Every structure is written in C-alpha cells, then in structure tokens.
Amino acid sequence: MHVVDHTKGQPSESETRNVLTESARIARGKINDLARLSAADHDAAIFPGGFGAAKNLSTFAADGKDCKVHGDVERVLKEFHAAGKPIGLCCIAPVLAAKVLRGVEVTVGHEQEEGGRWPYAGTAEAIKALGAKHCVKGVTEAHVDQKNKVVTTPAFMCETELHHIHDGIGAMVKKVLELCRK
C-alpha cells in the first residue's frame, strides 16, 4: 500500500518497495511467491500479522469490514481449510480468516481499549461483522478453533512488553504443530 518510515511513524512519500523483495531481505533470501504455495506440499500455514496483512494481503486498513483479501491469500486459506490442515494467524491477520472462512473463531485480544493497552480493540467488532466469532484472549494466549483448525493470537494488537508477544506467538505455533499431529 505504502512504505512507512518507522523512525518517524509516517508514510515515506518518495519510496516504493516490492513485498516479495522485502520478504526475501527479512528472511535472508529463501522465499517463494505466495502464488506457488500449495496445501499438498505443506502440513500447515502460518500468517504473520502486522500492517502488511492489513494493507498488502487485504484492504482491511482502508476498508475495515468491507475489505477484500488478496486472491492468493484467499486461495491458500480455503485450500488449507478444505484439506483439514491447520492455519495460524497472529496480530491483525485473523481478519483474513474472518473474511474468508465463514463462522470461524478467532482472537485479536480484548474488545475494549482498556486505557490504551488494546489500541486496536475495535477490530473485534469488525470480525463479528464479518460473521466470525471473536474470542477474548490475553496477549500470551492462543485461541484454537478445533472445528476449523485455526489458531490465533493477539501479538502486537496489545501494547505490552515484547516477551509477552513472543509467548503468545509461541503458544500459537505450538498449537498449530499439535494440530498437525492429529
């Protein structure tokens, strides 16, 4: 959608970036285009959140509950779901599942801002408006929708210390791996 200068917290008007190129930079090169991802080749799929999920994998940042999900993201979610393979999503990424998988249970944390601790609490209402069930969870917890094999955790939806976010993401990954064994 746009490049953000995180030293200023503002969009950089003069800069553009390619999502695939940036992914390769962060992952040190070993990446594949999402268009090539197939449930037949993997045991599970995990979608990290962040503004990329709300701005590049979907239009949620601009359109809220009326968002559109990137075609390959929608295909991957539906394909893994149809194959009965686990899907993990953290931070804002659970809105992707809420939009694509009707009736899914997800969490983005709490439903009230609680003095700024949960600054994106309004996302829970958008999730409900999409026809999904929002489950209140703490930042160190993961919610498991056993029926749909979808595991979610709030991550950076909460203003807290990084080790708490780490613990929640770890819980999500652990639950995804447990579902792989079932």
Automatic annotation (TrEMBL):
<protein>
    <submittedName>
        <fullName>Glutamine amidotransferase class 1 domain containing 3</fullName>
    </submittedName>
</protein>
<dbReference type="InterPro" id="IPR029062">
    <property type="entry name" value="Class_I_gatase-like"/>
</dbReference>
<dbReference type="GO" id="GO:0005739">
    <property type="term" value="C:mitochondrion"/>
</dbReference>
